[in-house]
Amino acid sequence: MALYAELHRHLGGSVVPRILWGYLQKNHHPLVEQFSDYAAFEGFYTRPRNSLEEYLELHKLVEQVQTAETLPYFIYRLLRGAYVFENLAYLELRYTPYLRTDANLSQSERIDQVEKIVEIVHQASRTVEYPIVTSQILCLHTALPYDVNRAMVDVAANLSHAVCAIDLAGSDRLYGERMDEFVDLYRYAQSRGLKTTGHLYETPNGCHPDLLPYLMRIGHGIQIPLHYPERLPELARNQQCLEICPSTYLKTGALDDISQLKVVFDRCFEAGVDIAICTDNAGLHNVRLPFEYENLLTFDIISFEQLQACQDAAFRHAFAWRYGPRPATLLHDLLQDQRGVGNRLTASVLP
């Protein structure tokens, strides 16, 4: 039974190692020749990196094989695993569609292909037999010029049936020199009615308060409770939700130990700031969302009550979930109704 919502998952990092290796082997991809066997590939693909920049290089490996022709293959397997192994009822997939276009074309020709990529992802998500509500978040990217990023905002606004929001991704070392540009893009996105999230306050390099007012949700944001807790009351007033991805911070070196997240959760709960627990790059981490839940509980970072609050927050802040309470609440109410009927029937036959 699907119960959970995943708000922060990258299409490029969502392919689990076994699926990617199988595709590379089946298509005789040159990457296969770099590894002696699957174990060597998995070890390379999932090991921790020294920095966010080094970690992001792995996305390039997947982006080169996620083309217009192959995206349905990967999306089918992604959604199948999300439903069968993760009990997901809702999934927002984020990615930069421009980076799935034909790299042999000119910039303007690639921009023209962006809409096609978004529609391919949309149709592939709809033809899967697994009942998961899905939507796309289009990532603006720090490695791309302004014109490309603005074009992706336009595509997001024009294809609202497929896209629920925009994001900002890429190396946060590049934020500062282009902050005015990104603020302008977010203002433009809001003028077109788009919802917004963005990778911000993930590492010490990504702490830019100028962009905060334009985000409905904050991708990661762990540096705020860790080093800028005075900002938490403002986030609570603005009902901004943090998308916390526990495994990521160990893979990128942002945190040395998962126990450091206890401060993040404690301060956010104390200030009334919502948290949605997410996976970020489930394939790169070789983990699934229930494992993230279990890990936080096992290390006494959160309680079961706090976990439930985070699960509720995920549906409450989901950009394209239009069905009120999360499925677990609906099931609970249904069972209560059934028990009530049963009790009334028992009472009617008792002497």
From TrEMBL:
GO cellular component, one term: cytosol
Enzyme Commission no: 3.5.4.4
Gene Ontology molecular function, alphabetical: adenosine deaminase activity; metal ion binding
Domain Adenosine deaminase: 5-320
GO biological process, one term: inosine biosynthetic process
UniProt keyword terms in alphabetical order: Hydrolase, Metal-binding, Zinc
InterPro entries: A_deaminase_dom (IPR001365), Ado/ade_deaminase (IPR006330), Metal_Hydrolase (IPR032466)
Top-level taxon in the UniProt lineage: Bacteria
Cofactor(s), by name: Zn(2+)
Enzyme class, spelled out: hydrolase
Family as reported in the entry's similarity comment: Belongs to the metallo-dependent hydrolases superfamily. Adenosine and AMP deaminases family.
Protein name as it appears in the record: adenosine deaminase
Source organism of this protein record: Romeriopsis navalis LEGE 11480
